[in-house]
Fold this sequence. Notes:
alpha/beta; 4-stranded mixed beta sheet
Amino acid sequence: FADDKVNEFVAKAKEADGFVFGTPVYYAHPSGRVMSFLDRAFYSSGSAAFAFKPGASVAVARRGGTTASFDAMNKYFGICQMPVAGSTYWNQVHGAVPGEACQDEEGMQTMRNLARNMIWMMRCFKLGRESGILYPETETNACTNFIKRSDTLR
């Protein structure tokens, strides 16, 4: 797509030091909009824009589905060699209407700790780069296909 917000995001992502992706929870899962956006962003850029940059996901719900949403969004990080920033609990807050999530004291504490951890990780990575510490070598030549074709079984 030529005129697309995902393209704009990926261009900016190449310059970013880390990422926090958030979602409201609908039907015990992240919103379709955020999942579609992340699918397209991560697929279109490969790992070039994301590798070795800290990532975190945040979920907000009235009641349930936050851990499933948190888990679904964190999967993008693992496949793109992104270290995952954690906190003192799962990165979730609860609230049913705008402003109510701010009343979730434990959730807000978790978010503050997550922010501190993200800042710390990004600073560590920056110091590492400045000190000449190279990122690990990435192997990419193996590709296993588990489909057995009848012509190869002879």
